[in-house]
Amino acid sequence: MLYAELGKPGRAVLVVRVIAAMTYNDGKDASGAALSWTAKEKTHFAADVTKAINDVWAEKHRITTTSNGVAFPDVGVIFDLKFIEDLSMFSHSHRNITVTKTVGFHRSTTHDWWFELGRNNSADWGSQDAQPYQKQASVHLQRTCVHEFGHILGYRDEYPIKTGNPNWLKDVDSVMHSAEQVRDRHYTLFADWLTRQHAIVNSKPPIEFKVNGVTTLLTAKL
After folding, report:
1. Per-residue pLDDT tens for 42-52?
2. pTM for the full predicted model
3. Residue 6: which CATH number?
């Protein structure tokens, strides 16, 4: 949803809502002893993930257009995140996320839309995913959940894997590589959405939104 910024003519904020249906699985430590979630730990995990994602992804770039006749030519992006356990079968969610209790690093995955075509896409995360750790390629830390959130938005890995994006392999500090830097290319899906919304009303001449006035979905090399 797009909302006007109070007291700032021409500026608006795009609120991106993501609802995740959460399942918390118990795990085992290295000795095989059971690791069980408490209600308090689940609450803290959801809060920590929400804060981490907002800190890294929200209000990092401006989406602008130089086209005439646009009510809001300057748009920021924030997120309305809901990580909810025990959603009813009648509730809508964008992802089904299973979080396994661990004592250390967990190789988390977030499945692409084509991997589960026709289903509500899933993800497998670990209980330490909101904790920072250092990947080998970067001197900076990364919280796994902020990287996995990039997959939820639709971005590929940028480190060397077969299904990744080969165009940004040297950008090790990128959030989709080994750290937490959200580049202008990581906002181009929002810019494209705004461009397409204006196209629906047959704007003539066409109105195009760009990240920081420069980058579009066609130039981002995604």
Report:
1. 999 999 999 99
2. 0.93
3. 3.40.390
